[in-house]
Amino acid sequence: MASVRSDENIELMTYSEVVDVSGYVGNFKVKIRKNPRYVDEDKCTGCGVCQEKCPFKADNEFDAGMGQRKAIYTPFPQAVPNVPVIDRDVCAYFLKGKCQACEKFCEANAIDFEQTEKFVEVDVGSIIITTGFDSFDPSVIAPYGYGRYDNVYSGLQFERMSNASGPTDGKLQLKDGSQPKSVAILHCVGSRDINYHEYCSRVCCMYSLKFSHIIGEKIPDAEIYQLYIDLRCFGKGYEEFYNRIQEEGVNFVRGRAAEVTDLAETADEEGKLIVLCEDTLIGRQRRIPVDMVVLSTGLEPRADAGETAKMFSLSRSADGFFLEKHPKLDPVATMTDGVFIAGCCQGPKDIPDTVAQASAAAARVLSMISKGKVEIEAAISVVDEEICSGCKTCLDLCPYGAITFDEEKSVAFINEALCKGCGTCVAACPSGAIIGKHFTTEQILAQIEGVLV
Predict the structure, then answer these.
(1) All domains of the chain, ordered by start, with CATH?
(2) How far apart are alpha carbons 15 and 32 in whole angstroms?
(3) pTM of the full structure
(4) pLDDT tens digits, one per residue of 305-319
């Protein structure tokens, strides 16, 4: 990230969002809203004094709600640029007109409560969408007790807990501060489930195995249980890592957990969480008492994926992820020329696959820039202006937004760079003024005649 920011050919707009996109390949106009940080990026030195002196706190989103951050905060430790932002919903100045402790202690005079949002319009030739994913919210699966029992954590929460810069400084601990002696890791939470997401999230098996290794390193005598449907260790070196985890003494239970409860039936279960499951390898039901439960949550499309798809004219698959042009032959392009996708916005994938796809998308953009010209489809629609009645029927029907209306001539106009030759307008035009190039009625009849003769 630091290399990107220091590159003279890259303009990095952080804390900003795209609000409108128009145009076509080679001629996109992108409107960007730059949200106010209330901190002057040019003056701020990143010393952190303002965050130390701020008396108001809120849940830390980066720590998945396990820790707290100040009303003025840096989103995450390695954020680029290293400039904090003020949360209007927590800051006492915006709520009550008081405090301003950050401004008083800032020696660089970088705090600016008068900042407002700014809009910037840029001309770009190509767009790469890399909006990522959301982690599945396990609270909707009530039997697992997430949000009801203190020591049931999501995979992302455990990741932050085990991180040295996390809310517990890397210490694995229960709600009361003690160290867990037994941990159950439940696979496929929200994935491979007809009630939530039928697809496999691909990363859950491997990060669950990683959790086992981390627990074993930090708490050598801990009893660890992996409850799985089947393990999908598909990548380079992944199967070897699975074998290594088995050798470390982790208990593998083949079967999806049915419920997590705190209702003890024996003295050994008192004060523990009990995981109810069926072990399909031995053909019997089991009650596994543990101190901590980790839910390996799957990946799902971003909550605003629908809005993003509409803005960039993208299609979405049945599972909600952005749809590529072809899953094998063109996995980074979309049906909108000049708009590419990479990473988990296209579908669940791990880091190596994401890096490879991002490199492919960048290469496609660079190849277009080096050519200087773009080839478009030959089979597109055209308007015969002499016949067009100006009824505007075709404008709302075009799925690619390729048709506009020429007010001076009172006729429809088709942008050749946007048209994909789907034929919707050709079929709908009441005047017969729109013709499909290389797919005219005469050509179709000639083909039929050729087949029949």
Answers:
(1) 2-125 (no CATH), 153-297 (3.50.50.60), 381-452 (3.30.70.20)
(2) 10
(3) 0.89
(4) 999 999 998 999 999
